[in-house]
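WARN retry 2 of 3 for item q-0093 after timeout on previous attempt; input resubmitted unchanged.
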Amino acid sequence: MGMKQIELPGTGDFKGMAADAQRGILYITANWGAQLIALDLRTDKELWRLKLEEKSFPDSIALTRDGRFLYLPMRNLHVWRVLDTTTREMVATLPIDKADVMPGSKVYREGEPWPHNTVLSADGRFMFLESLGVNYIHVADTATHRIVRKIGPFSNGVRPFVLSPDDRYVFANVDGLLGFEVADVATGKIIHRLENHTPAERAAVVPITPEQAWHRTPSHGIGLRPDGKEVWVSNDVFGLVHVWDVTVMPPTPVADVPLYRKASDRDDLPHSSWIGFSLDGRYCYPCGTDAVIDTQTKQIVARMASGEKIIEIHFAGDKPVRAGRR
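OK item q-0093 returned
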């Protein structure tokens, strides 16, 4: 197995990816030049690129189940745009109420919501929308492209989050928490707050504080194993991934997986930041590190170069047949 590079001249600072295996298209947002790029997965050729509003800062995108509509968080415009991928026209705008911004936030400027992450529900009926500095997750109806409700309030601004396979629970990182909170989707209420605990021998040698972490929060990464049984949570300060059993409520801790090579090495500070899984659930990829973890043994089984954005796509010959989510 080899590695290849696809050149996209005039782009960079890629923030989001979404793959449509049925149509064979990979969508990528580029902060440099505020662009959306569509790549042909069969040929690796650029199909088209769409110039977005200047300095809009397009972030982490998501497709509807049929691939027809793409939800684009526009961080600096404080809205989501909904793109018809067939006509390449914007068909809806979803603003986030300023009143939902956390008061007195020290992390974000201007008292504005910054649209950040976008997740489609398992049944395809709803798109879940998260904004930096906001302690609610807003829910849009994918049939009408309108926000119909919100979940929360969480204890602080929401960061990366995932949905359970039955769309019953939201598992979310929040600002300032080494761990995650659990929300009941039906009621919109927060039902559990779980904290990770760093092994003492590791905490004793790490020279930085949670406020100095890469994304200015101790946990900026959460992933649900594809079978829905475990949530894996990043520890961006001390260089671990924490595993929780979510077949029970409240969730219970299973394992602490070190990403560093030696607990005593104060200069080895891997920042996992996002959590990805192989489509079959055998491996976990703490994105932004070089670790590949066996999800059964909870051991690192390989190390490979990795970026912050990873998406797995399966091919039959040169035809894409299945795609994961970033």
